[in-house]
C-alpha cells in the first residue's frame, strides 16, 4: 500500500512538473481599425511571412484610386521577431514601409512610414 501511495505521489509530481506552453497567437484572420478599414491577414511564403489583403477601406483613404485595391494583396512582410513583421504596404500609387506587430491574440498594430520620417500607427482588432 505504501509503495502505491509513493508511486501515485510521484506520478502526480511528474505530471505537474511538465511545463505547458501556450501556442503563439495566430495573425490569421480579419482585423478592423476604428475607421472600418479591414485587412485579412495570413501567414504566407515559407509560413513565416505575413500577407495582407485589403478587404474594406473607409474614411479619408477611401478614394476612387485606393478603392481599386480592395480585395487585393497589398502587403507582404518578413518576420523579424516573434509576432513582428516588416515589409511594404502598397496601394493606390502610395507605398510605405510597414511594421506589423501582433500585440495580443486579437490586436495588430501597423506602423507605416513614408520617407522614413512620416510615420503613423493604426490598431486593428480581430473581427
Task: Give an overview in words.
The chain is an alpha+beta fold and 127 residues long. It has one domain: Lipocalin (Beta Barrel). Helices cover 16% and strands 51% of the residues. It contains 2 helices and 8 strands, in the order αβββαβββββ. An 8-stranded antiparallel beta barrel has the order 1-2-3-4-5-6-7-8. Strand 7 and strand 8 (118-126) form a beta hairpin. It is globular, with a radius of gyration of 21 Å.
Q: How is this structure best summarized?
A:
Helix content is 16%, strand content 51%.
| Distance between the ends | 56 Å
The oligomeric status of these chains comes to single chain
> Spatial order of the strands in the main sheet?
1-2-3-4-5-6-7-8
Total of DSSP H or I helical runs spanning 4+ residues: 2
- Architecture per CATH nomenclature, i.e. the level-2 architecture: Beta Barrel
Mean pLDDT: 83
Total strands = 8
Number of domains: 1
Structural class: alpha+beta
Task: Tell me the major beta sheet.
Answer: 8 strands, antiparallel, barrel
- What series of H and E elements makes up the topology? HEEEHEEEEE
Broad shape: globular
CATH class: Mainly Beta
| Percent in strands | over 45%
Reported by name, the CATH topology is: Lipocalin
Radius of gyration: 21 Å
Bin the helical content.
10-25%
Which stretches of 5+ consecutive residues score pLDDT under 50? 1-22
Amino acid at each position: 500500500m505504501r509503495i502505491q501511495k509513493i508511486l501515485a505521489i510521484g506520478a502526480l509530481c511528474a505530471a505537474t512538473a511538465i511545463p505547458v506552453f501556450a501556442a503563439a497567437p495566430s495573425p490569421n484572420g480579419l482585423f478592423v481599425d476604428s475607421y472600418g478599414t479591414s485587412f485579412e491577414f495570413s501567414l504566407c511564403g515559407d509560413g513565416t511571412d505575413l500577407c495582407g489583403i485589403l478587404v474594406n477601406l473607409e474614411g479619408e483613404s477611401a478614394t476612387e484610386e485606393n478603392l481599386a485595391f480592395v480585395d487585393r494583396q497589398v502587403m507582404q512582410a518578413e518576420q523579424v521577431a516573434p509576432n513582428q513583421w516588416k515589409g511594404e504596404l502598397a496601394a493606390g500609387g502610395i507605398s510605405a514601409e510597414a511594421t506589423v506587430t501582433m500585440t495580443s491574440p486579437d490586436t495588430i498594430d501597423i506602423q507605416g512610414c513614408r520617407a522614413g520620417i512620416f510615420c503613423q500607427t493604426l490598431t486593428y482588432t480581430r473581427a
